[in-house]
Amino acid sequence: MPLLNADRLLNFDEAPTIEAYTETDTMLYGLSLGYGSDPLDERQLRYVFERDLVAVPTMAHTLAMDASWITDPASGIDLAKMLHAESGLTVHNPLPASGRVSSKLKIPEIIDKGEGRGALLYFARELSDAATGQHLATITSTFFLRGNGGFGGANRSASPPAAIPDRAADFSLPIATLPQSALLYRLTGDDNPLHADPELARKVGFDRPILHGSCTYGVACRALIHLVCGDDPHRLGRIDVRFTAPTYPGEALLTEVWNMGEGQFVFRCRVVERDIVVLNHGVAQLRDA
């Protein structure tokens, strides 16, 4: 495996990625998060039924994402040792239920933790309406490249995560994921066989296929929309989170939320059955605060 080609990545400047999506895509994303589990609940139906259909804000992560720079051997990324560490979303305008979007990606920083300690790669995408140019969202992610430390890059301490208060949560909501959640979610674009193939999952140390971290993130967004947005997804302005452990499809996720004032909240998600925190140090901000 070659050394990480940091110069190539930091100077990445490809043409914007364009993608058209339909109401069916939006409904499929909603179904993968468990919306529609109660088909008589109008609050759930608006994400999975074409009448007055709205998009879950975190669906922006699935749109116009060109991952060829990750899999390109010239980048030098050790894919077998890459982990998705963090995800973030800042909403500038509500995502339409269908449309055509343009995404422009930049890699602003790579932290070299040293030989044997890995590297942190940060990237950001600006998502816009391809027809009108309206800025829809800024999408961020951090990858922990466990096999790419010691490439000769700069090292610094990563930004400290949001602190979770040492008191009981102000709000909480359990949401059961579906046994088929991973099989549904991979149809939104991430078809990694780790989320579908039992044999492959066992080979890499899991009892069975795991749920996509970004699907767990979407379920947390679903809980926040209900708990702090009054079931209005357009009120959510920001949702950032750190991944700490995998979730298995079918497990229940308990989202715990603390009100920090001025429209800002911190949160975490734990798997009820195993009492393990799978998302931590989350931050959410209301747009109208």
TrEMBL record:
Q: Gene3D superfamilies per the record?
A: Hotdog Thioesterase (3.10.129.10)
Q: Which GO terms describe its molecular function?
A: (3S)-3-hydroxyacyl-CoA dehydrogenase (NAD+) activity; 17-beta-hydroxysteroid dehydrogenase (NAD+) activity; enoyl-CoA hydratase activity
Q: Which CDD domains match?
A: HDE_HSD (cd03448)
List residues of the Peroxisomal multifunctional enzyme type 2-like N-terminal domain. 21-147
Residue span, MaoC-like domain: 164-274
Q: Which domain of life is it from?
A: Bacteria
Q: What is this protein called?
A: MaoC family dehydratase N-terminal domain-containing protein
Supply the Pfam families for this chain.
Answer: MaoC_dehydratas, MFE-2_hydrat-2_N
Which PANTHER family does the protein's record reference? PEROXISOMAL MULTIFUNCTIONAL ENZYME TYPE 2, PEROXISOMAL MULTIFUNCTIONAL ENZYME TYPE 2-RELATED
What's an example Gene Ontology biological process for this entry? Answer: fatty acid beta-oxidation
